[in-house]
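Known limitations

Files may contain more than one protein. Parsers should not assume a single record per file. Below, a two-record file is shown to illustrate correct handling: read the sequence, read the token line, then continue until end of file.
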Amino acid sequence: MQIAIDGPAGAGKSTIAKKVAAKLGAVYMDTGAMYRGVAVHMTDAGISPQDKERVEEEAGSVGISLAIKDDGQHVIVCGEDVTGRIRTEEAGKAASAVSAYPKVREMLVARQREIAGEMDVVMDGRDIGTVVLPDATLKIFLTASVEERAKRRYLELIGRGVPESSISIEEIESDIAARDLADMTRECSPLKKADDAIEVDTTGIGIDEVTERICALYREAAEK
């Protein structure tokens, strides 16, 4: 089983993919977390995410793997569990930068395909249906309005205890729009909907409803 879920930041890919995987008895793979892990490694190594030459040179020596534990997926980089460090705004912006570099993508795509060849997976990211798993049983392009995605991110940060006075929903909207542009216009594996992907707009739709729809679409695709 291979289900590819692509889409822009904040569309709900991780949340939906986890639920779909649980319902269908598959393993959830968050590929974006792997890029964040690489970004954290570069920062620790004193390498700027904008320094393409040094990032690509270092990428060859980055050992990265995923571990499935009781509390979900963990990202292991060079033997260190960096899961608790990859969900910051800084890590997200750094990941957006390093993910544009061909050698970084080449290294991680190879690893992602290897994992997908060993087990049933629901994989989410930016180029799963177009590059990583072009022959996936089902391809979903999950999207939502910028306003909706910014609201979700704002509530997520508040839920983590971030003071309301330190965040602005307008700034979040601006950051999301900028990341969308960067992801869609990068030279290497830009974010785009695969020709055979089904677009699902989650604006104003509940998580359970979206999950059930995707599970139904998978069952239809599997029957074919």
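...continuing to the second record:
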Amino acid sequence: MTTALADLPPLRESLAAHGLLAKKAFGQHFLLDLNITRKIARLAELGPGDQVIEVGPGPGGLTRALLETGARVVAVEKDERFQPLLEELRDAAPTLELVFGDALKVDEAKLAGPSPAHLVSNLPYNVGTALLIKWLTGPWTPASLTLMFQKEVADRIVAQPGEDAYGRLAVIVSATCRAQRVMDVPARAFTPPPKVDSAVVRLVPHAERSDAELLRQLERITAAAFGQRRKMLRSSLKALGGEALADAAGVDPQARAETVDLAGFLRLAAELGRRSG
């Protein structure tokens, strides 16, 4: 840790000095415990010179821990109220770059530059899933993702066929990366505390990236199948080909989405792609 970082006042003091409170509309819950943020930084397996993109730094609790590893951090923040506070942090750590804007609209490839970049974030609850889908299926591929979600979302990310939490998110995740839940964080660790606990999930993209068109068809198939998850595939996929589609893909048309594994969904997506021309 640099001397300048170590000399920064505690985050609670900085928030009070700037009169900043969490905004419910942005899904903000501040993580101010440096012991927890440092553990997240360790779980991300960062080292000096690594490139990191952080979304939703807020007052900069996790940002401080990321900078302590020696990583170069690009922090993307939508709430410009935090600009003075984050600029103080940048003055203490020149390896921090600040971008004020909507993370759903930014071009991560431009932010990262030519080197591989890792994503490490305590994601805003209201856009966490949408951001994850963007990063997994979009044109830019991160080197790794170490992300905090609501516990319920984390359960859905790592769920397996047959489990209650298994759904389209788990299928898309398993098609694009290896995912592991690595840390639980209780609600009381946040300011203000949310109504639910959280969990950190670490995702490492597969070496061979899935074809973009196959992923697009996989999103169509899973949206239809899990949109009516209690129905058999011949019914839930009726608009896409129903029983004929399932038979051609070698998947039991009487199966329900919650029992179909990744291989089955990939065959369905591939068959749908062939039929779509």
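Parsers that stop after the first record will miss the second one. For reference, the second record is described as follows. The beta strands are 30-31, 51-55, 72-77, 96-100, 117-122, 144-150, 177-185, 190-191, 198-205.
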